[in-house]
Amino acid sequence: MRTAVVMPAFNEAEALPGVLAELAEAVPDHEVIVVDDGSSDGTAGVAAAAGVTCLRLPFNLGIGGALRLGFRYAADEGFDRAYQFDADGQHDPSQIATLLAGLEHADMVVGTRFTTGDAGDPGSGEGAYRVGRSRNLAMGVLRWLVRRATGHRFTDTSSGFRALRRPVLELFATDYPVEYMDSVEALLLAVRHGFTVIEVPVRMRERRGGRPSNRNLRLAYHFVRVLIVLTAGLGRRNRLGVVV
Fold this sequence. Notes:
Elements: E1 3-9, H1 16-26, E2 31-37, H2 43-50, E3 53-57, H3 63-76, E4 81-84, H4 96-101, E5 108-112, H5 133-150, E6 162-165, H6 166-175, H7 182-192, E7 197-201, H8 216-239
Helix pairs in contact: 1-2, 3-6, 5-7, 5-8
């Protein structure tokens, strides 16, 4: 079974060498596809030096646009499955096997950073991935809206560690959301096309270099935008007489 690793990268020259070296050791039979999202540093050169496939965008499209290009390449090249992997070192290669094992039972697998405690709240279990109070509140709102809009309960709607079987890969090759917070809309897209989507618990790490590309104002804008998308989807379900 041919497996592709789709890795969007924007100015990740500092962290990328270590990430690619880890992948080469952990999954040497997986083809890594780095999508250089208009970087101004040496990201593309790092990928070329490592001998992996590098797709270069002439300017920064954002993670959604970079992922769509990577998925399109993987679909066109005939890969049977693919998974997203961050270029900043947050994703742990030791967790890849857990993620891919989920594809035996589903079309799409999301690696959740959160465990469920006795109270049933994501993030309350021992060893859970921790986030700040305001971010946790925002993520809670998104979880609730996704559950209302799809009828499915997800603990981590924004995780970027995901695996796809070929039918989902073909869908995402043409229709993957290109706006920021693409991960939330991708869940809606997959569920609404009738695909089985499940979560599996995985470990995450701190980023190894560089810095996050988004600022608070931009995050706030995209959060509001995705709320509108989710609310509109919820209204559509209600008009169709679907009980949520």
